[in-house]
UniProtKB/TrEMBL annotation:
Belongs to the UDP-glycosyltransferase family. The keyword Transferase applies. This is Uncharacterized protein. Keywords: Glycosyltransferase, Transferase. It comes from Hibiscus trionum (Flower of an hour).
Length: 177
């Protein structure tokens, strides 16, 4: 991708909708001082309810203080395809499957990225949680650099990456274990 040397980089950052992923992604977004952070309604609600002053409301912008300090950052909230009252913890498998494969947010994110392409400066990259399978399609559609952001410890990545060796050597998913 050719980029004008005077153009300020602009990234859109999308975490996986679990609070631990969101927290790390917020830290990344603040470090990058980006113009684009997408969160789900449910996790936004969880974060605002957990504020120590208990004065936070659902309408609060969780990066407003960062913006007041001069960072150029935008915050958007999208649905994850499940109602706010749906218990994501009790129905983790159904939720995980829905988020990865049928989450309506990828359509919403596609629309959001399309709208953001009209801003000045337009985005130059899409940073999305590694668990998403659709980020490369959206990045390709809008000619953005696709960045896969791994939010878990390196050890977990290594275990996922080498699960075939763990199985082969009888350390995982073998008979009797």
């Amino acid at each position: 991708m050719e980029m004008n040397n005077h153009q300020k980089p602009h990234a859109i950052v999308i975490p996986y909708p679990l609070q631990g992923h969101v927290t790390l992604t917020v830290h990344l977004a603040l470090k990058l001082a980006t113009k684009g952070f997408v969160n789900t309604q449910y996790i936004h609600q969880q974060i605002t309810k957990s504020q120590p002053d208990h004065s936070a409301t659902f309408d609060d912008d969780i990066v407003a203080d960062a913006r007041k300090s001069g960072l150029d950052i935008r915050y958007d909230v999208v649905g994850d395809g499940f109602p706010l009252g749906f218990d994501r913890s009790l129905n983790h498998d159904q939720y995980f499957e829905g988020v990865l494969h049928v989450m309506s947010a990828h359509v919403v994110v596609d629309e959001l990225v399309g709208e953001t392409m009209e801003t000045n400066p337009p985005p130059t990259c899409l940073i999305a949680d590694t668990f998403y399978v659709w980020s490369s399609m959206i990045s390709n559609k809008y000619n953005l650099v696709n960045v896969s952001f791994w939010t878990e410890p390196a050890l977990v990545f290594t275990l996922y990456y080498h699960v075939d060796l763990l199985r082969k050597n009888g350390h995982f998913d073998s008979l009797g274990t």
